[in-house]
Design the sequence.
């Protein structure tokens, strides 16, 4: 008897859920700049505490430098603030593979693709150029005002001396003062190695993108200062708040497109902006614009409108001089300090501002002083062939100190001291000149800044 053959076992295909209409796109993850790091598109940012730790390593000096100091360096007064990386991770590969896309009609009832119905001509590998989709727009053409400013920057020290030479500020019309102020700001930028701001806000604004929405307030200062800041940091929006009428040479220059001017009735008026609005507040004339009793209110208002992590930066020159002799002290006390105190202005604004910033809760307050000679130092110049350049450098520092001093305190100079019968300023007095050169008397340019933490 022939045995009946056994039927082969039926092998059932496991249940496979049907695929969606479109397969999910899976990207390969190229590594970013950090080794073995996951790739994402979120900016790499530091917390306020991490940035503060970076700042702790900075070397700041809170005393005067020698008059012979030519420029600021990390060994005397101002150090380069840390560069805070705020860019995006960049992919190391410019392409990502996308698998075949299967049409839903090609899937059989068992969940497996039907080979005979696949349209391979329509399902081909696709290479996606990641950078092509993210190509940056070409940069806009340079601002006309920035081009004019760059011409001044490239003119050299001798040209700076010629344009900053002693011409009493009181004899300049607004247009002439605007022009001279531009040269002074270029000279100050040379003094601080190409930086208009000395706080870490410089790096924040320098590397800002338009979409970051950075905002800066220039508080109670010449309109030229706001223009220069706006031109040097083009991806931030600048607002200049002033209680004075603004005059600028419309025929010579066009205002930077990222700069706006806002009028306020008085310097004691509340700053017309909401809380946590600005990334940076800058002022260079507070010592002669705001009375001593109003300084606290202005600094408190600045703290209010700053965003957490924002910076306040102040520049000032005290009316008193460093290493001044008796003749110079008497001249300044009788003709500048007495009128200032009568009008309730501080005779030592740099110290008062520093203490107020600490008392009001500004974080990581820094204070740096730059010594600027009141007269060219009477010593033999270097015989190495650079004597002319060294003399120009000394004169630039002298003229910068005089410009800022006169711009701040010219309004307090008592009537009768400007005219043909008497010297307009103490540096025109031969007795003061001889004493200052003997004592190495200097201006004290003070730069202070602090941060809002919350």
Sequence:
């Amino acid at each position: 008897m022939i045995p009946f053959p056994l039927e082969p076992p039926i092998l059932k295909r496991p249940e496979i859920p049907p695929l969606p209409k479109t397969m999910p796109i899976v990207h390969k993850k190229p590594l970013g700049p950090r080794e073995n790091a996951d790739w994402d598109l979120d900016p790499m940012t530091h917390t306020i505490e991490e940035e503060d730790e970076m700042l702790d390593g900075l070397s700041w000096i809170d005393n005067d430098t020698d008059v012979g100091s030519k420029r600021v360096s990390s060994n005397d007064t101002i150090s380069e603030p840390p560069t805070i990386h705020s860019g995006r991770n960049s992919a190391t590969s410019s392409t990502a593979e996308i698998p075949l896309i299967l049409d839903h009609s090609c899937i059989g009832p068992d969940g497996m693709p039907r080979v005979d119905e696949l349209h391979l001509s329509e399902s081909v590998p696709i290479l996606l150029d990641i950078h092509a989709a993210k190509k940056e727009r070409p940069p806009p053409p340079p601002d006309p005002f920035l081009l004019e400013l760059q011409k001044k920057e490239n003119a050299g020290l001798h040209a700076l001396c010629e344009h900053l030479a002693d011409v009493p500020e009181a004899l300049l019309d607004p247009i002439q003062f605007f022009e001279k102020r531009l040269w002074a700001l270029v000279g100050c930028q040379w003094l601080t190695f190409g930086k208009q701001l000395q706080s870490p806000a410089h790096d924040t604004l320098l590397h800002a993108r338009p979409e970051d929405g950075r905002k800066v307030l220039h508080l109670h200062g010449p309109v030229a200062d706001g223009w220069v800041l706006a031109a040097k940091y083009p991806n931030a929006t600048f607002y200049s708040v002033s209680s004075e009428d603004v005059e600028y040479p419309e025929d010579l220059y066009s205002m930077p497109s990222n700069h706006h001017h806002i009028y306020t009735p008085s310097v004691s008026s509340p700053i017309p902006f909401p809380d946590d609005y600005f990334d940076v507040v800058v002022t260079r004339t507070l010592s002669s614009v705001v009375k001593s009793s109003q300084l606290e209110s202005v600094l408190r208002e600045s703290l209010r409108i700053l965003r957490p992590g924002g910076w306040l930066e102040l520049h000032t020159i005290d009316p008193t001089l460093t290493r001044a002799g008796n003749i110079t002290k008497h001249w300044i006390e009788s003709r500048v300090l007495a009128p200032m105190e009568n009008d309730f202005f501080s005779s030592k604004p740099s110290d008062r501002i520093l203490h107020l910033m600490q008392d009001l809760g500004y974080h990581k307050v820094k204070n740096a002083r730059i010594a600027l000679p009141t007269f060219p130092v009477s010593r033999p110049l270097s015989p190495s062939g650079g004597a002319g350049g060294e003399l120009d450098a000394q004169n630039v520092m002298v003229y910068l100190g005089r410009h800022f001093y006169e711009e701040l305190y010219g309004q307090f100079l008592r009537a009768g001291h400007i005219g043909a019968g008497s010297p307009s300023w103490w540096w025109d007095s031969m007795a003061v000149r001889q004493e200052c050169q003997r004592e190495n008397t200097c201006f004290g340019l003070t730069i202070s800044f602090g941060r809002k933490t919350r």
In short: The first strand starts at residue 95 and ends at 98. The longest helix spans residues 387-409. The chain has two domains: 14-43+90-138, 48-87+143-451. The radius of gyration is 32 Å.
